[in-house]
Amino acid sequence: MSGDAAARWRPSADLETARLRAAMLAEARAFFADHGILEVETPALSPAAASDPHIESVGVTLSAARGQPYFLHTSPEFAMKRLLCAGWPDIFQICKVYRDGEVGRHHQPEFTLVEWYRRGLSLPAMMRHTVAFVGRLLEPRAAAGEVRYLGYRDAFREAAGIDPLSAPLPALRAACHADPPLAAALGDDRDAWLDLLLTRRVAAGFPAGRLTVLHHYPASQAALARRCPADDRLADRFEVFCGDVELANGYHELTDAAEQRARCAAEQERRRAAGLPLRPLDERFLAAMETGLPSCCGVAVGFDRLVMLNRRAESLRAVQAFTAVDGDND
Fold first, then answer.
1. CB contact at 8 A, 221 and 194
2. Is 327 exposed, middle or buried (0-12, 13-18, 19+ CB in 10 A)?
3. Is residue 123 helix, strand or coil?
4. For residues 88 and 58, is the Cβ–Cβ distance under 8 A?
5. Cα separation, 198 vs 152, whole angstroms
6. What pLDDT tens digit does each residue of the chain (330 aa) get?
7. What's the CA gap between 98 and 59, in Å, rounded?
8. 58, 77, 288, 300: least surrounded by Cβ within 10 Å?
9. CA neighbours within 13 Å on the CB side: how many for 4?
10. Nearest of 142, 143, 136 to residue 29 by alpha carbon
Protein backbone atom coordinates (compact mmCIF):
# COMPACT_ATOMS: atom_id res chain seq x y z
CA MET A 1 0.00 0.00 0.00
CA SER A 2 1.36 3.43 -0.93
CA GLY A 3 2.05 5.93 1.82
CA ASP A 4 -0.50 8.31 0.30
CA ALA A 5 -3.28 5.68 0.31
CA ALA A 6 -2.38 4.65 3.86
CA ALA A 7 -2.72 8.24 5.01
CA ARG A 8 -6.04 8.88 3.26
CA TRP A 9 -8.12 5.73 3.72
CA ARG A 10 -10.11 7.00 6.69
CA PRO A 11 -13.62 8.48 6.33
CA SER A 12 -13.86 12.23 5.96
CA ALA A 13 -17.02 12.29 8.13
CA ASP A 14 -17.14 11.14 11.75
CA LEU A 15 -19.51 8.60 13.28
CA GLU A 16 -21.68 11.28 14.88
CA THR A 17 -22.28 12.79 11.46
CA ALA A 18 -23.18 9.37 10.03
CA ARG A 19 -25.77 8.91 12.77
CA LEU A 20 -27.15 12.39 12.09
CA ARG A 21 -27.43 11.62 8.35
CA ALA A 22 -29.31 8.42 9.09
CA ALA A 23 -31.73 10.24 11.40
CA MET A 24 -32.29 13.00 8.85
CA LEU A 25 -32.95 10.50 6.06
CA ALA A 26 -35.52 8.78 8.27
CA GLU A 27 -37.12 12.15 9.05
CA ALA A 28 -37.27 13.01 5.33
CA ARG A 29 -39.07 9.76 4.56
CA ALA A 30 -41.43 10.36 7.49
CA PHE A 31 -42.28 13.79 6.06
CA PHE A 32 -43.24 12.31 2.71
CA ALA A 33 -45.18 9.50 4.35
CA ASP A 34 -47.15 12.10 6.33
CA HIS A 35 -48.11 13.74 3.01
CA GLY A 36 -48.92 10.50 1.21
CA ILE A 37 -46.10 10.86 -1.31
CA LEU A 38 -44.83 7.62 -2.85
CA GLU A 39 -41.12 6.78 -2.82
CA VAL A 40 -39.76 5.65 -6.21
CA GLU A 41 -36.44 4.56 -7.67
CA THR A 42 -35.29 5.27 -11.22
CA PRO A 43 -32.03 4.30 -12.98
CA ALA A 44 -28.88 6.32 -12.47
CA LEU A 45 -27.64 5.21 -15.91
CA SER A 46 -29.10 6.59 -19.12
CA PRO A 47 -28.15 6.79 -22.81
CA ALA A 48 -29.22 10.46 -22.63
CA ALA A 49 -27.61 13.35 -20.78
CA ALA A 50 -28.34 16.86 -19.59
CA SER A 51 -28.37 19.41 -22.41
CA ASP A 52 -28.16 22.36 -20.00
CA PRO A 53 -24.85 24.13 -20.80
CA HIS A 54 -24.34 24.89 -17.09
CA ILE A 55 -24.48 21.20 -16.07
CA GLU A 56 -21.99 18.56 -17.21
CA SER A 57 -22.90 14.89 -17.16
CA VAL A 58 -20.46 12.15 -16.19
CA GLY A 59 -19.99 9.66 -19.02
CA VAL A 60 -19.42 5.94 -18.46
CA THR A 61 -18.53 2.96 -20.67
CA LEU A 62 -20.42 -0.32 -20.37
CA SER A 63 -18.93 -3.57 -21.67
CA ALA A 64 -22.52 -4.80 -22.05
CA ALA A 65 -23.30 -1.98 -24.49
CA ARG A 66 -20.19 -1.40 -26.57
CA GLY A 67 -20.40 1.63 -28.81
CA GLN A 68 -23.34 3.09 -26.88
CA PRO A 69 -22.39 5.98 -24.59
CA TYR A 70 -24.06 6.09 -21.21
CA PHE A 71 -24.24 8.82 -18.59
CA LEU A 72 -24.90 8.99 -14.87
CA HIS A 73 -27.93 11.11 -14.12
CA THR A 74 -27.48 14.70 -12.92
CA SER A 75 -31.01 14.50 -11.49
CA PRO A 76 -33.80 11.90 -11.58
CA GLU A 77 -36.12 14.57 -13.03
CA PHE A 78 -36.74 13.23 -16.54
CA ALA A 79 -37.39 9.68 -15.35
CA MET A 80 -39.70 10.89 -12.58
CA LYS A 81 -41.67 13.01 -15.03
CA ARG A 82 -42.11 9.95 -17.22
CA LEU A 83 -43.75 8.28 -14.24
CA LEU A 84 -46.07 11.27 -13.82
CA CYS A 85 -46.94 11.14 -17.51
CA ALA A 86 -47.86 7.47 -16.99
CA GLY A 87 -50.40 8.47 -14.36
CA TRP A 88 -48.41 7.92 -11.17
CA PRO A 89 -49.35 9.98 -8.07
CA ASP A 90 -47.19 12.42 -6.09
CA ILE A 91 -43.70 10.88 -5.90
CA PHE A 92 -40.33 11.44 -4.26
CA GLN A 93 -36.84 10.01 -4.56
CA ILE A 94 -33.66 10.20 -2.47
CA CYS A 95 -30.65 9.27 -4.57
CA LYS A 96 -27.05 9.90 -5.51
CA VAL A 97 -26.57 12.17 -8.52
CA TYR A 98 -23.44 13.04 -10.49
CA ARG A 99 -22.27 16.31 -12.00
CA ASP A 100 -18.89 17.03 -13.49
CA GLY A 101 -17.32 20.44 -13.01
CA GLU A 102 -16.90 22.55 -9.91
CA VAL A 103 -15.48 21.07 -6.71
CA GLY A 104 -15.42 23.00 -3.47
CA ARG A 105 -16.96 23.61 -0.06
CA HIS A 106 -20.51 23.26 -1.39
CA HIS A 107 -19.90 21.08 -4.45
CA GLN A 108 -18.84 17.49 -5.11
CA PRO A 109 -19.27 15.47 -8.33
CA GLU A 110 -21.33 12.92 -6.36
CA PHE A 111 -23.94 14.07 -3.86
CA THR A 112 -27.35 13.18 -2.44
CA LEU A 113 -30.47 14.79 -3.86
CA VAL A 114 -34.02 14.73 -2.51
CA GLU A 115 -36.46 15.35 -5.35
CA TRP A 116 -40.25 15.26 -5.37
CA TYR A 117 -43.30 16.21 -7.43
CA ARG A 118 -46.80 17.17 -6.38
CA ARG A 119 -49.70 17.26 -8.80
CA GLY A 120 -52.14 20.18 -8.90
CA LEU A 121 -50.22 22.38 -6.45
CA SER A 122 -49.71 26.11 -7.04
CA LEU A 123 -46.23 27.64 -6.92
CA PRO A 124 -46.89 29.48 -3.60
CA ALA A 125 -48.20 26.24 -2.08
CA MET A 126 -45.10 24.36 -3.24
CA MET A 127 -42.86 27.05 -1.76
CA ARG A 128 -44.58 26.66 1.62
CA HIS A 129 -44.43 22.87 1.31
CA THR A 130 -40.67 23.02 0.61
CA VAL A 131 -40.10 25.35 3.57
CA ALA A 132 -41.97 22.83 5.74
CA PHE A 133 -39.67 20.02 4.54
CA VAL A 134 -36.49 22.02 5.05
CA GLY A 135 -37.69 23.28 8.42
CA ARG A 136 -38.45 19.74 9.58
CA LEU A 137 -34.92 18.56 8.80
CA LEU A 138 -32.96 21.56 10.03
CA GLU A 139 -32.19 22.20 13.66
CA PRO A 140 -34.51 24.81 15.25
CA ARG A 141 -31.84 27.51 15.06
CA ALA A 142 -32.16 27.53 11.26
CA ALA A 143 -35.92 27.16 11.05
CA ALA A 144 -37.29 29.09 14.01
CA GLY A 145 -37.08 32.58 12.50
CA GLU A 146 -39.64 34.10 10.17
CA VAL A 147 -39.25 32.93 6.58
CA ARG A 148 -38.88 35.71 4.05
CA TYR A 149 -40.48 35.32 0.62
CA LEU A 150 -38.75 37.70 -1.78
CA GLY A 151 -39.25 38.31 -5.49
CA TYR A 152 -36.07 37.98 -7.56
CA ARG A 153 -36.52 41.41 -9.08
CA ASP A 154 -37.16 43.07 -5.71
CA ALA A 155 -34.12 41.33 -4.21
CA PHE A 156 -31.78 42.74 -6.87
CA ARG A 157 -33.21 46.23 -6.53
CA GLU A 158 -32.86 46.07 -2.76
CA ALA A 159 -29.34 44.62 -2.59
CA ALA A 160 -27.64 46.12 -5.65
CA GLY A 161 -29.89 48.87 -7.01
CA ILE A 162 -30.20 46.87 -10.23
CA ASP A 163 -33.29 45.83 -12.18
CA PRO A 164 -32.29 42.35 -13.41
CA LEU A 165 -34.85 42.45 -16.20
CA SER A 166 -33.75 45.73 -17.79
CA ALA A 167 -30.27 46.68 -16.58
CA PRO A 168 -27.73 46.80 -19.45
CA LEU A 169 -24.87 44.33 -19.37
CA PRO A 170 -22.22 46.99 -18.48
CA ALA A 171 -24.26 47.84 -15.35
CA LEU A 172 -24.29 44.18 -14.30
CA ARG A 173 -20.54 43.95 -14.82
CA ALA A 174 -19.90 47.10 -12.80
CA ALA A 175 -22.06 45.87 -9.93
CA CYS A 176 -20.21 42.53 -9.70
CA HIS A 177 -16.65 43.90 -9.31
CA ALA A 178 -15.31 40.80 -11.04
CA ASP A 179 -11.56 40.40 -11.57
CA PRO A 180 -10.38 40.39 -15.21
CA PRO A 181 -9.99 36.58 -15.60
CA LEU A 182 -13.50 35.98 -14.28
CA ALA A 183 -14.94 38.80 -16.38
CA ALA A 184 -13.31 37.32 -19.47
CA ALA A 185 -14.72 33.87 -18.65
CA LEU A 186 -18.27 35.24 -18.27
CA GLY A 187 -18.05 37.28 -21.48
CA ASP A 188 -21.44 38.50 -22.65
CA ASP A 189 -23.49 35.82 -20.88
CA ARG A 190 -26.10 37.98 -19.16
CA ASP A 191 -27.46 35.15 -17.01
CA ALA A 192 -23.95 34.27 -15.83
CA TRP A 193 -23.49 37.85 -14.64
CA LEU A 194 -26.86 37.74 -12.89
CA ASP A 195 -25.82 34.50 -11.16
CA LEU A 196 -22.59 36.12 -9.98
CA LEU A 197 -24.45 39.17 -8.73
CA LEU A 198 -26.93 36.89 -6.95
CA THR A 199 -24.08 35.16 -5.14
CA ARG A 200 -21.97 38.21 -4.33
CA ARG A 201 -24.52 40.89 -3.55
CA VAL A 202 -28.01 39.41 -3.15
CA ALA A 203 -27.66 36.08 -1.31
CA ALA A 204 -24.68 37.41 0.64
CA GLY A 205 -27.11 39.77 2.36
CA PHE A 206 -29.65 37.15 3.37
CA PRO A 207 -29.94 36.83 7.18
CA ALA A 208 -27.62 34.15 8.58
CA GLY A 209 -29.44 31.12 9.96
CA ARG A 210 -32.77 32.19 8.45
CA LEU A 211 -34.68 30.84 5.46
CA THR A 212 -35.22 33.05 2.42
CA VAL A 213 -37.35 31.97 -0.53
CA LEU A 214 -36.35 33.76 -3.72
CA HIS A 215 -39.02 33.42 -6.39
CA HIS A 216 -39.92 34.35 -9.98
CA TYR A 217 -36.57 34.29 -11.72
CA PRO A 218 -36.13 35.84 -15.20
CA ALA A 219 -37.65 33.75 -17.99
CA SER A 220 -34.17 33.27 -19.45
CA GLN A 221 -33.43 31.20 -16.33
CA ALA A 222 -36.63 29.16 -16.51
CA ALA A 223 -34.77 25.88 -17.12
CA LEU A 224 -37.66 23.38 -16.88
CA ALA A 225 -40.14 25.79 -15.31
CA ARG A 226 -43.10 27.30 -17.09
CA ARG A 227 -43.24 31.03 -17.75
CA CYS A 228 -45.27 32.98 -15.22
CA PRO A 229 -48.84 33.37 -16.53
CA ALA A 230 -49.07 36.87 -15.03
CA ASP A 231 -45.78 38.12 -16.56
CA ASP A 232 -44.03 36.13 -19.28
CA ARG A 233 -40.75 37.94 -18.56
CA LEU A 234 -40.59 35.76 -15.45
CA ALA A 235 -40.40 32.04 -14.72
CA ASP A 236 -42.39 30.14 -12.10
CA ARG A 237 -39.18 29.13 -10.33
CA PHE A 238 -37.99 29.51 -6.75
CA GLU A 239 -34.95 28.73 -4.62
CA VAL A 240 -34.71 28.33 -0.86
CA PHE A 241 -31.65 29.64 1.00
CA CYS A 242 -30.48 29.33 4.59
CA GLY A 243 -28.34 32.40 4.99
CA ASP A 244 -26.40 32.52 1.72
CA VAL A 245 -26.43 28.73 1.20
CA GLU A 246 -28.78 27.57 -1.54
CA LEU A 247 -30.69 24.46 -0.45
CA ALA A 248 -33.57 23.93 -2.88
CA ASN A 249 -34.56 24.68 -6.46
CA GLY A 250 -38.22 24.34 -7.45
CA TYR A 251 -40.53 24.92 -10.40
CA HIS A 252 -44.09 24.97 -11.49
CA GLU A 253 -43.18 22.52 -14.21
CA LEU A 254 -43.34 23.22 -17.91
CA THR A 255 -45.99 20.98 -19.47
CA ASP A 256 -45.85 22.19 -23.10
CA ALA A 257 -44.10 19.40 -25.03
CA ALA A 258 -43.26 21.56 -28.05
CA GLU A 259 -41.70 24.27 -25.90
CA GLN A 260 -39.78 21.62 -23.97
CA ARG A 261 -38.24 20.27 -27.18
CA ALA A 262 -37.47 23.81 -28.37
CA ARG A 263 -35.71 24.59 -25.09
CA CYS A 264 -33.60 21.43 -25.40
CA ALA A 265 -32.63 22.41 -28.94
CA ALA A 266 -31.72 25.93 -27.79
CA GLU A 267 -29.54 24.49 -25.04
CA GLN A 268 -27.74 22.34 -27.60
CA GLU A 269 -27.04 25.46 -29.64
CA ARG A 270 -25.65 27.23 -26.58
CA ARG A 271 -23.44 24.22 -25.90
CA ARG A 272 -22.18 24.31 -29.48
CA ALA A 273 -21.47 28.04 -29.28
CA ALA A 274 -19.55 27.57 -26.02
CA GLY A 275 -17.46 24.73 -27.46
CA LEU A 276 -19.04 22.17 -25.15
CA PRO A 277 -19.77 18.59 -26.27
CA LEU A 278 -23.29 17.99 -27.55
CA ARG A 279 -25.21 15.41 -25.54
CA PRO A 280 -27.88 12.94 -26.73
CA LEU A 281 -31.33 14.19 -25.78
CA ASP A 282 -33.68 12.04 -23.74
CA GLU A 283 -36.17 11.15 -26.46
CA ARG A 284 -38.15 8.91 -24.10
CA PHE A 285 -38.73 11.87 -21.80
CA LEU A 286 -39.74 14.08 -24.75
CA ALA A 287 -42.12 11.38 -26.02
CA ALA A 288 -43.67 11.12 -22.56
CA MET A 289 -44.17 14.90 -22.52
CA GLU A 290 -46.14 14.60 -25.76
CA THR A 291 -48.61 12.27 -24.04
CA GLY A 292 -49.15 14.95 -21.39
CA LEU A 293 -47.42 15.91 -18.16
CA PRO A 294 -50.05 16.79 -15.55
CA SER A 295 -49.95 20.21 -13.93
CA CYS A 296 -47.43 19.81 -11.13
CA CYS A 297 -44.67 21.41 -9.11
CA GLY A 298 -41.30 19.83 -8.46
CA VAL A 299 -38.38 20.61 -6.21
CA ALA A 300 -34.88 19.28 -5.57
CA VAL A 301 -33.05 19.71 -2.26
CA GLY A 302 -29.33 19.20 -1.69
CA PHE A 303 -29.38 16.82 1.28
CA ASP A 304 -25.67 17.10 2.08
CA ARG A 305 -26.01 20.86 2.55
CA LEU A 306 -28.76 20.30 5.11
CA VAL A 307 -26.40 18.00 7.01
CA MET A 308 -23.65 20.61 6.73
CA LEU A 309 -25.86 23.22 8.36
CA ASN A 310 -26.92 20.92 11.19
CA ARG A 311 -23.32 19.89 11.88
CA ARG A 312 -22.02 23.46 11.45
CA ALA A 313 -19.53 21.93 9.01
CA GLU A 314 -17.37 23.95 6.65
CA SER A 315 -17.64 21.69 3.62
CA LEU A 316 -19.44 18.72 2.08
CA ARG A 317 -16.35 16.59 2.69
CA ALA A 318 -17.07 16.77 6.42
CA VAL A 319 -20.53 15.22 6.03
CA GLN A 320 -19.89 12.59 3.33
CA ALA A 321 -18.22 9.36 4.44
CA PHE A 322 -15.89 9.50 1.46
CA THR A 323 -15.49 11.91 -1.45
CA ALA A 324 -14.12 11.05 -4.87
CA VAL A 325 -12.41 14.45 -5.25
CA ASP A 326 -10.64 16.58 -2.67
CA GLY A 327 -11.01 20.37 -2.68
CA ASP A 328 -12.65 23.17 -0.74
CA ASN A 329 -12.28 26.05 -3.18
CA ASP A 330 -15.70 27.68 -3.55
1. yes
2. middle
3. helix
4. no
5. 9
6. 555 665 678 899 999 999 999 999 999 999 999 999 999 999 999 999 988 888 899 999 888 877 788 999 999 999 999 999 999 999 999 999 999 987 778 888 999 999 999 999 999 999 999 999 999 999 875 555 689 999 999 999 999 999 999 999 999 999 988 888 888 888 888 999 999 999 999 999 999 889 999 999 999 998 899 999 999 999 999 999 999 999 999 999 999 999 999 999 999 998 998 889 888 999 999 999 999 999 999 999 999 999 999 999 988 999 999 988 876 555
7. 10
8. 58
9. 0
10. 136
AA letter at 208: A
Classify each residue of 184-206 as buried b or exposed e, where b means 16 or more C-beta atoms within 10 Å of its C-beta.
eebeebbebbbebbbebbbbeeb
Amino acid at 231: D
DSSP states of 229-247: TTEEEEESEEEEEETTEEE
Scored b (16 or more CB within 10 A) or e, 73-95 reads bbbbbbbbbbbbbeebebbbbbb
- What is each CA distance from 251 to 123, 182, 255, 321, in whole angstroms? 7, 29, 11, 31
Between helix 190-197 and helix 152-160 the angle, nearest 10°, is 70
Is the sign of the CA dihedral 71, 77, 82, 83 positive or negative?
A: positive
The C-alpha atoms of residue 309 and residue 292 are separated, in whole angstroms, by 39
Rounded to the nearest 5 degrees, what angle is found at the Cα of 202, between the Cα atoms of 222 and 248?
50
Contact 235, 226 (CB under 8 A): yes
In sequence order, the β-bridge partners of residue 58 are 72
User: What is the identity of the amino acid at 207?
Assistant: P
Rounded Cα–Cα distance for residues 131 and 145 (Å): 12
pTM reported for the whole predicted model: 0.93
Give the number of other Cβ atoms within 10 Å of residue 265's Cβ.
11
Q: What is the rounded CA–CA span in Å between residue 65 and residue 171? A: 51
Sign of CA dihedral 208, 209, 215, 221: positive
